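Q: Got one fold?
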Amino acid sequence: MSTPVCAAPQCDRPAHDGFICVTCRDVLRRDLDAVPVLCEDLQVTIAKQDRLGDTDGRSTDEHPLPLRLGPMEARRDLADTLRAWADHVAQRRGIPAPEHDPVKAASFLRCFLGEIQDDQMAGDIADEIGYCVIMAGRTVDKPLQHVYAGPCDECGVDLYAHPRASDVSCRNCARDYNIDTRRKWMLTKAEDQLLTATEMSRALPGLLQQQLTASMIRGLAHRGRLTAHPPLPDRPREPVYRVGDVIELLHEISSREAA
């Protein structure tokens, strides 16, 4: 007897346990976990009034709308989809449905991933929620710069996480990683790298979670606290510095300021 195929659209992986494969289930979990932060970003975008660049053909005499309609519609669609599927799962289990709030509905569905995987509608649930999460994310105005968490150990795809997230899932293979653990791993890997002050000021602040500018690095070198190494051949005018030396100095400065 052949193994059934995952019920999620565009997926041809085998569904060994239930109607969707393990990967699609994990992607659904990731989408549900993203809802709280996504709703916060949507609310900020909806309320902004200073960058309403699209007048929709209105004359310049008209006042701009106090709210942004695109993000409002995306949030409504997300909330309606989550509520509908939360009601479906609740009815199937014979339990009360959660309040009509997207964050609570997402949390409710997150608790019943096993139940969803065994539901004949699992493919539609994963597909519709995933689509709404993607579309809502696209309406967010200038979202926060995502944090780079290195390449996935399984498939090599680069990992990017929301700045306030504690975990990140690979969008390709759905493997989970802890952000702090990945940050420490990348810092360890980068210790012996030689970078210019500009390169270091772009690469390290996100990993160290503290401010670092090129002028700060040059100032440390000027005061004799940081060794400047000869420039690389492709940048003959810019000295380079060892990443580990800069990290050590920043930790020393932070400890002294704390004391």
Q: What stands out?
A: Residues 1-143 form one domain. The chain has nine helices and six strands. The two ends are 69 Å apart (CA to CA).
